[in-house]
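Please, structure for the following, as tokens.
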Amino acid sequence: MKAERCPNCNKIISPHERICSNCGYRLNNQTINKMNNIYHRSNVATLWFFLFFLLWAIIFVFSNWIYATIITAILVVLLIYFKNRK
């Protein structure tokens, strides 16, 4: 079961709660799902950032910063293109 958070105070809540026990915010499934989607996208974006930084660092070790930056930038552009393509 995935952790759910209160959209008002960010406290982890039980999926059965209708009112946050921490701040008293009235909960419904739509606001909880919206908040959880924001956290998921944020975590995925952070993971991609560190992956590209690691790739940049590995290329930098074996060549120089110009090649590392160019290759990483091309990969970022391709990722954005394929992610937004429908």
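Helices lie at 29-62, 65-84. Residues 7 and 31 are 7 Å apart (CA to CA).
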